[in-house]
Design goal:
Layout lengths: L7 H6 L8 E5 L7 H7 L2 E6 L2 H13 L4 E5 L11 E7 L8 H13 L1 E12 L15 H7 L4 E11 L5 E10 L2
Parallel strand pairs: 1-2, 1-4, 2-3, 4-5
Antiparallel strand pairs: 5-7, 6-7
């Protein structure tokens, strides 16, 4: 994967996940991660509750003839089967109502991968808040706790400039189903 075309989080996990395979992107938005991953040969299903972003993703995928299926829907109600190599939620879980709702979505993510598959999450934390929707997660330890029954490949907490121009902290994890 070419780092300059990837989100910082996806750049961190690139060495662990190689095509081919199916990827489910929770909160796909306009395809910031889906489009570069599809260009590499992954088969992408992206779900988002913004019709505007779904239309934009469909347009971009069609233009480049990519294997991307955009689904309008709510990630809290989506029930994936265990067919995915990776289920990804990059900067989307902070929109959940509380920590318990995040845990429920994480359980859905966990059920969506085959044994040997991965879950990847990046989420703003309370350590240094820079966005309108601060996460109910304190730090990376909250993610590690949710994946205590999986092999944690990598995790951390970093700072980045968010789309609003402010610096803030985010926790991230890449875990493998064993």
């Amino acid at each position: 994967m070419e780092n300059e075309k990837l989100s910082p989080f996806l750049g961190k996990i690139q060495k662990h996940i190689q095509p081919p395979g199916k990827v489910l992107d929770f909160g796909v938005g306009y395809g910031r991660d889906a489009i570069p991953m599809a260009k590499l040969g992954f088969n992408i299903i992206g779900i988002d509750q913004s019709r505007k972003w779904i239309k934009q993703l469909e347009k971009e995928a069609k233009k480049d003839e990519l294997k991307v299926r955009a689904v309008y829907g709510d990630i809290t109600k989506f029930n994936p089967s265990d067919e995915f190599k990776l289920v990804l939620a990059n900067m989307s879980l902070q929109f959940m109502k509380n920590k318990n709702e995040i845990k429920r979505v994480v359980e859905k993510m966990k059920s969506g991968v085959q044994v040997g598959g991965y879950n990847g999450i990046a989420i703003p934390t309370k350590t240094k808040v820079a966005i309108k929707f601060p996460s109910p997660l304190e730090n990376v330890d909250a993610l590690k706790e949710m994946y205590s029954d999986w092999e944690i490949i990598e995790s951390g907490e970093d700072e980045k400039e968010f789309s609003n121009g402010l610096d803030g902290s985010y926790a991230w994890i890449l875990a493998k189903k064993i």
